[in-house]
Amino acid sequence: MSTILAHLDDKELGRIVFKRNLRAKRLSIRIHSEKLEVNIPKGFSEKDGMKFVNSVRDKLLKKQNSAQQKSILITENSPLQTRTFLVQVKKTPRNDLYSTLKSGVLFIEFPERLEENDEKTQQYFWNSINYFLRKEAKRILPVRTRQLAEKYDFSFSEVKIQSSKSRWGSCNRKKIINLSFYLLLLPQHLIDYVILHELCHTEELNHSPKFWDWMDKVTDGKAKILRSELKNFSIPR
């Protein structure tokens, strides 16, 4: 059980909300997309909370910057293009959330009472996006993996589509390749790079020089360039 004690706008950190949390045993901070939430246990004051914030200010700024880089805000003026469909959201008089994929466009309608920048609204959007990303990934990625495996003479046992937010793909000793459906947020040549990366792991289950020799063979010597380019993309939070 928690109650809001106060809030303020900090020039560097943005909105800070102080909450009394009777279950908490120590001061803690949660970073949200639109605010910082400071949980204050019994026996501590707002001043104690702000003192704690200032003691870890540099770390908070770094974490906020990292979170902003990984988050993708979906708005009416900022549609999202995936590999196979465009996401467009629109505020309407309806009372619930509605989404449909037609002719390469995912239309998401949301109630007027909701703010599109709100964290919960964004989660609604991503729930719909993730549903269709998974369907499209299951349709596309196994087929593409087979095509590349045949082209470069690799063998694998199975392709599984997952919702991993920690890695684009993985491969185990049984030659089972796991691919995150968030791959569909990448351009095609980087999707192929990730798939080839996992196919090379069917030959070398490590990142030894021999593994990177394989990668250079299947990318025309561009493995390092493509690896560097992939670092510019992050799986959304």
Key structural traits:
Zincin-like, 237 residues, single chain, 6 helices, 3 domains, four-stranded mixed β-sheet, alpha/beta, 11 strands
Tell me about this structure:
This protein has helices spanning 46-55, 57-70, 119-152, 188-201, 209-218, 223-230; strands spanning 2-10, 14-21, 28-31, 36-40, 80-81, 86-92, 98-102, 105-111, 158-162, 169-171, 176-180. It has 237 residues and is an alpha/beta fold. A hairpin with a 3-residue loop joins strand 1 (2-10) and strand 2 (14-21). Helix 3 crosses helix 4 and helix 4 (188-201) crosses helix 5 (209-218). It is globular and about 65 Å long.
Helix-strand topology string? EEEEHHEEEEHEEEHHH
Radius of gyration: 22 Å
CATH architecture of the largest domain: 2-Layer Sandwich
| Strand count | 11
CATH superfamily of the largest domain: Metalloproteases ("zincins"), catalytic domain
- Numbering strands along the chain, what is their spatial order in the largest sheet? 1-2-4-3
The residue fraction in helices comes out at 25-40%
Strand residues, percent: 25-35%
Low-confidence stretches: none
- Give the tally of structural domains: 3
* Cα-to-Cα separation, first versus last residue: 26 Å
Shape: globular
What order do the helices and strands come in, and which of them pair?
Blueprint: E1 2-10, E2 14-21, E3 28-31, E4 36-40, H1 46-55, H2 57-70, E5 80-81, E6 86-92, E7 98-102, E8 105-111, H3 119-152, E9 158-162, E10 169-171, E11 176-180, H4 188-201, H5 209-218, H6 223-230
Parallel strand pairs: 2-4, 6-8, 9-11
Antiparallel strand pairs: 1-2, 3-4, 5-6, 7-8, 10-11
Helix pairs in contact: 3-4, 4-5
